[in-house]
Design goal:
alpha/beta; Chloramphenicol Acetyltransferase; five-stranded mixed sheet; two-stranded antiparallel sheet; 5 helices
Length: 251
């Protein structure tokens, strides 16, 4: 992907995938706006008063480029929006955030939940912060086990409130990246459709970096020569043939 969009990061691709899923979903509903949707992203940033082992959090409003149909151009637009943000320059990476706490997923969820509730309470339902929120919940990079059973999947359920009815949570765990969402039923009455739109958006970007395998030409099928069968002469029946012997004798 970096060859197609130089300088693109994993965060850029995740935002572009979410944007593509939202675009597909709204287009299917006939409600795709001409202007781009805006996502609110809480980020851990370095501050002047930062204490050891802690980080302050700040909101970043980003245009997702949902008004761009081409997936590559959408990724470039998202990348340009993120690179121009002054707050993003101070952002703490997911790897660094993971090493700052003993239980990073629960800590990140708790902080993000508090920020969502605070933002909704301050803004009220008349002035939404953004169309949706996208938050990163970094998890352990090694697999976890419980009594010998391996934890195979890890996702987060984020809170929704007035003015914020759709929240995407991006969870990392053991070299995996899971995108899940929590939505208000009134805003997204068919979440399974939105989930499929996210999968289709991911496959769209996957097809950009994974070229289709060339089709192998089929080997010509050898035709067997037709076997000519000579027609057999049909014997003509004599008049009266097949009748009982007694019927051919004259009285």
């Amino acid at each position: 992907m970096r060859e197609l969009a130089p300088g693109a990061t994993v965060n850029d691709v995740v935002l572009a995938v979410c944007a593509g899923g939202l675009r597909r979903y709204l287009d299917m509903q006939g409600e795709l706006p001409e202007a781009s949707l805006v996502a609110a992203t809480p980020l851990a940033v370095r501050g002047e008063r930062e204490t050891a082992g802690s980080a302050s959090f700040s909101w970043v409003r980003l245009e997702l480029g949902t008004n761009i149909a081409d997936p590559l151009q959408r990724l470039v637009a998202v990348q340009g929006t993120i690179s121009s943000s002054t707050v993003m320059a101070q952002a703490v990476s997911a790897r660094e955030l993971t090493g700052r706490a003993q239980h990073p997923p629960s800590a990140a969820i708790a902080v993000t939940s508090k920020m969502l509730r605070s933002a909704s309470a301050l803004l009220g339902d008349w002035s939404p912060l953004a169309n949706c929120a996208i938050t990163n919940v970094p998890g352990p990079r090694v697999p976890l086990y419980l009594h010998g059973a391996r934890l195979s999947y890890l996702s987060a359920i984020m809170p929704i409130a007035d003015g914020m009815g759709l929240v995407f949570s991006v969870t990392s765990y053991s070299d995996m990246l899971i995108i899940s969402f929590t939505a208000c039923y009134e805003q997204v009455p068919d979440p399974q459709v939105l989930a499929q739109c996210l999968r289709d958006s991911f496959q769209e970007y996957l097809a950009l970096v994974r070229p289709a395998a060339p089709r192998q030409p089929r080997a010509p099928v050898a035709r067997m020569p037709r076997k000519v069968v000579a027609a057999r002469p049909t014997a003509q029946r004599r008049k009266g043939a097949g009748l009982p012997q007694a019927s051919r004798q004259s009285r």
